From TrEMBL:
Name by which UniProt lists this protein: Glycosyltransferase family 92 protein
Keyword annotations: Glycosyltransferase, Membrane, Transferase, Transmembrane, Transmembrane helix
InterPro entries xrefs: Glyco_transf_92 (IPR008166)
GO cellular component: membrane
Organism the protein comes from: Umbra pygmaea
Length: 440
């Protein structure tokens, strides 16, 4: 009996051991579930167009993958305080982990016009084990010393070729400020650009008047205008002028140089060409019906060019076309200048500095100023004014000229039929003009 009980105990022990071994084997070989999302660190992502760099006086605006250099870099368009530059480090969010420790290369732009703040490019080398999605700047290289950093999204992740671009022509408008409410001229300019073949207009908006806000909202819904909020006045005292010694303030024209550079990079892989000009300026072809027709010819003549300089020509708003042909009753209640009434053009004084605006291939531009690029990869061409020049209706530049000393220039009238009708339609859709049928 004792032998039988002993054998039973041994068999039972073996059974228990086998069962335990099976359970352990099952646990080991079962596929493991992925950690919950809650286990991943939650990133602080900025959705603002201007983001402060912690513990500095600097600001980040936009981050863009740089596909044109050897090596892997992200370029951060920034605003830097010139007298407060210190070593900065790039911090990347790589999807599954963060990477840091690489020192940033700060490239302050040469144009600052004496102001304390300047546009700057920050080049961030990307670590080998990182596919970056977000980036920020820090005064610390050690990730353990960086507390709750604020990241911005990296744009232009895909290097598109020309056939994949969404637009042929995009206009980048220098920022609006001072409750800008020049509605009629704004509408006429946008509708002229439509007729010239522009597919997108980008506006950096600090402040605009109530009527222009309605118009912007209407164009945004249509998809023609992209509005980028630009609250630069929340971060510094922006200047209303271009020269610090005359106008004071912290930065040139509400950060105009920064917005132009950001706009170039923002649309580098969206648009074949980008026009850099003010909202009261129309880059108008004079030997072609559209900008596309003109640029096809110019590009064939200058195959290595990526910057085309366009002369600025002033049309004084103080001189009116005498017949009153376009002094339309319907437009009199709309605030702003009627450019169709101003057909007299100043001849530029070539003895003094004469400014240009630009049509650029954005992929060929590294840094830009207002009237010229600072760095580009190709050639720069001055377009003859008989081929293209700017229609710029504003206060006269050469104030002593009489009407007889000005040149009659009715280029805008060549688009009269469609332009007038399209302006009416745009104003009606924005609720700024009653429909014709309801007029007495």
């Amino acid at each position: 009996m004792m032998a039988k009980r002993c054998k039973f105990k041994i068999s039972f022990s073996l059974l228990i051991a086998s069962a335990l071994a099976f359970v352990v084997y099952t646990i080991i070989t079962l596929p493991r579930s992925k950690p919950e999302v809650e286990d991943q660190p939650v990133l602080n992502i900025s959705n603002e167009s201007i983001t402060p760099v912690k513990n500095t006086k600097h600001l980040m605006v936009g981050a863009y993958m740089e596909h044109r250099f050897r090596g892997r870099y992200v370029r951060i368009i920034s605003i830097f305080r010139r007298d407060s530059v210190l070593p900065l480090y790039c911090v990347f969010s790589c999807g599954t982990h963060s990477a840091s420790g690489l020192q940033a290369e700060v490239q302050m732009h040469s144009d600052h016009f004496g102001f304390a703040f300047v546009t700057a490019d920050i080049l961030c080398p990307i670590p080998a084990d990182c596919s970056p999605v977000y980036v920020t700047l820090s005064t610390q290289a050690d990730l353990n010393l960086i507390w709750n950093p604020t990241f911005i999204s990296i744009q232009n992740l895909v290097n598109k070729n020309e056939e994949e671009l969404q637009f042929n022509f995009t206009v980048c408008v220098s920022n609006l400020f001072g409750d800008y409410n020049n509605v009629l001229q704004f509408t006429q300019t946008l509708e002229m650009y439509k007729l010239l073949g522009v597919q997108r207009v980008v506006v950096y908006n600090t402040s605009s008047g109530p009527d222009l806000e309605k118009l912007l909202q209407s164009y945004r819904q249509e998809g023609f205008v992209e509005v980028v909020p630009w609250p630069i006045n929340n971060h510094m005292n922006p200047s209303r002028g271009w020269l610090f010694s005359e106008h004071g303030g912290d930065i040139h024209y509400y950060g105009q140089l920064t917005t132009l550079n950001d706009c170039v990079y923002r649309h580098m892989y969206q648009s074949r060409y980008v026009l850099l000009n003010d909202i009261d300026e129309i880059i108008a072809p004079y030997q072609h019906q559209t900008l596309a027709q003109m640029m096809e010819v110019l590009q064939s003549q200058h195959k290595k060019a990526d910057v085309f300089l366009i002369e600025n020509h002033i049309f004084p708003k103080t001189q009116f076309e005498p017949s009153g042909r376009f002094n339309r009753t319907r437009w009199r209640t709309v605030p702003g200048i009627n450019i169709m009434e101003h057909i007299y053009r100043e001849e530029p004084d070539y003895k003094i500095y004469h400014p240009y605006k630009m049509i650029v291939q954005p992929r060929g531009v590294e840094q830009t100023s207002v009237h010229s690029v600072l760095r580009n990869f190709g050639q720069t061409v001055k377009v003859p004014p008989e081929v293209c020049h700017i229609v710029h209706v504003r206060v006269p530049l050469r104030k002593g000229l009489t009407k007889e000393e000005l040149h009659e220039d009715k280029r805008v009238w060549n688009y009269e039929k469609e332009l007038v009708s399209n302006v009416d339609g745009a104003l009606e859709r924005a609720g700024l003009l009653m429909r014709e049928a309801s007029q007495k």
